[in-house]
Amino acid sequence: MAMAAEPVPDAVWDERQAYEELLYWDSLIQRGHRLLPHDFDRYEELRYWYDCLCYEEELRQYDEYIAAIQEMEENRLQTEAPPVRTPPMRIFVSDDRHMMAKHAAVYPSSEELEAVQTVISHVECALKTVSDLLDVEAGVGVAPVPVEGAEESEVAPPPERILRGVMRVGLVAKGLLLKGDMDLELVLLCTEKPTVTLLKKVAENLSTQIELVTEDKYEVTQIPEEAEIVIKSIKEPVLTLTIHLTSPMIRMEAEPEGAGATTPLEGPPGEKLTVDSDAPADVLDRQKCLTALASLRHAKWFQVCILSLLVK
Question: What DSSP state is assigned to residue 275?
Fold first, then answer.
């Protein structure tokens, strides 16, 4: 009589091994190596696990700190005043007063928040105009001329926009700006893989459109090797806005197979890291574009989590 197969137990998560693997992927990235999509997904999973681990440890330390403060406050009130005359909510009011003082010390001033919103609004408005100009130059959005005798299904659809949109990421998207945080981030999504030519064209047009949008002076810098455009305000407070160029095509591209299609790099024992050779000659750094996509997903995930907490 055949024996029933026993269920296979789930693999145990070895924290030490996971941490060593995370250090290994970090060292590869710091040495300039590019990871395969599945290797980069594994790296993101380990990085997210480590961030959650650190966050839980910080919460534990914060809870211990609050408990110690409350215990000290209770002991002080018991020695200074009779228990009958002690207001029942005085401990919490004292804690609230301390927390409000700490919050006021780290929260940005109204001038800083207004400056952040102004810079981002100016850049987003200028990018919208730049996107329209690029589409006009490329003939995007022009309705195709129908051919006499051709069916409607045979008419080619108009091409997609060159720039699909711009999203806020990092501390701005999460609403976690603190006093003194002067570095802001945006992600500019492109339909096709972004290239050095596109980056320079966007930067040049952006500099012109910003001057038309506002009288404020900004310094626009192109950094193709980092796949980004840096915009720095001139007046105080001096803010630095970084625009990362990326595209979903970077992540959705198929892994080529066969000789001559990939370039092997140093990797773990028994594995090879490969680089796609079918990309355009001046395509931006693939690893930088993948990092920008990851920051976009992290911002969306954070916003969904906060929304779920508010709904509850």
Answer: -
Sheet holding 163-169, edge to edge: 163-169, 183-190, 240-246, 228-233, 218-223
Q: Which of 217, 287, 303 is nearest to 34 (CA)?
A: 287
State the pairing for strand pair 228-233/240-246. antiparallel
The angle formed by the CA atoms of residues 184, 288 and 267, to the nearest 5 degrees, is 140
Sign of torsion over alpha carbons 272, 278, 281, 283: negative
A 10 A CB-CB count for 26 gives 13
Rg (the chain; Cα; Å): 27
Give 145-157 pLDDT, tens digit per residue.
555 555 555 555 5
User: What's the gap between Cα 63 and its chain centre?
Assistant: 29
Quickly count: other Cβ atoms within 10 Å of residue 299's Cβ: 20
pTM equals 0.60
262 and 248 Cβ atoms separated by less than 8 Å? no
- Annotated domain spans of the chain: 15-105, 108-141+155-311
Mean per-residue pLDDT of the chain:
78
What sign results for the dihedral spanned by CA atoms 167, 168, 169, 173?
negative
Q: H-helix or E-strand containing 228?
A: strand 228-233
Cα dihedral sign, 295-297-299-305? negative
Around Cβ 171, how many Cβ atoms within 10 Å?
Answer: 16
- Which residue matches tokens 């919050």? 103
Q: What pLDDT does residue 9 have? A: 47
CATH class of the structural domain 108-141+155-311: alpha beta
